[in-house]
């Protein structure tokens, strides 16, 4: 691995940390606005990455995906889940879904903003800005769709719990093995290819809106 590859990998990793920070901020802010201040009292309504870092999802797994031989630079991860006290919410089922979806929606919004900035880079004749914004827009979309996978600790699992009426006891029992199941699932190429296809299709659609062809 060359020095330039290491530098590029670290830049991508820092971008991932920033995007994950905004993702968790979206959860925490929405929970606060819905009536639950548990996350706010724990300092999670913040854009400080340090309060959101998860040792496995934010550090170990992404760095292995970037630098482990044979991993194919598959950069993905998650941050520390935002605590939510459902008893503080006026409409627990609906509010739980809103809070859960706020993270992926934040990543979708960031992707749109980044594609817009990439377009500004084109107008200003700054190809490096355009390329970097495009790369991080794709990463933000990848995080959006990755988090919709219905396996704990990802957001999709919480939405699935609400939609199926699964008990909290059953959900937390499954969650004990969630990270292991998720890591195993991510080893399957069809899963990686499906995520890449949905991500690239959405990125293309956003790009067309901003005049990219």
Averaging pLDDT over every residue, what do you get? 93
Oligomeric state of the chains present here: single chain
Distance between the termini: 33 Å
Percentage of residues in helical conformation: 55-70%
Number of helices: 9
Largest sheet: none
Which stretches of 5+ consecutive residues score pLDDT under 50? none
- Counting DSSP E segments of at least 2 residues, the number of strands comes to 0
Order of helices and strands: HHHHHHHHH
The structural class is mainly alpha
Q: Total domains, how many?
A: 1
**How large, in whole angstroms, is the Cα Rg?**
18 Å
Outline type: globular
Q: How much of the polypeptide forms β-strand, as a percent range? A: under 5%
What keyword list fits this structure?
mainly alpha; about 210 residues
């Amino acid at each position: 691995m060359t020095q330039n590859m290491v530098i590029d990998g670290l830049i991508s990793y820092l971008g991932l940390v920033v995007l994950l920070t905004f993702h968790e901020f979206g959860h925490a802010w929405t929970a606060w606005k819905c009536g639950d201040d548990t996350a706010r009292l724990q300092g999670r309504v913040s854009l400080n990455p340090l309060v959101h870092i998860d040792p496995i999802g934010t550090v170990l797994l992404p760095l292995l995906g970037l630098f482990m031989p044979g991993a194919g630079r598959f950069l993905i991860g998650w941050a520390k889940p935002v605590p939510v006290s459902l008893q503080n919410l006026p409409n627990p089922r609906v509010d739980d879904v809103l809070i859960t979806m706020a993270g992926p929606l934040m990543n979708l919004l960031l992707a749109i903003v980044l594609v817009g900035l990439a377009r500004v880079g084109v107008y200003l004749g700054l190809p490096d800005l355009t390329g970097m914004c495009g790369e991080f827009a794709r990463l933000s979309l990848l995080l959006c769709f990755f988090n919709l996978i219905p396996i704990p600790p990802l957001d999709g699992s919480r939405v699935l719990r609400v939609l199926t009426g699964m008990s909290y006891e059953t959900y937390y029992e499954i969650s004990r093995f969630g990270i292991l199941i998720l890591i195993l699932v991510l080893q399957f190429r069809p899963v990686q290819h499906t995520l890449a296809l949905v991500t690239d299709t959405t990125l293309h659609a956003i790009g067309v809106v901003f005049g990219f062809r």
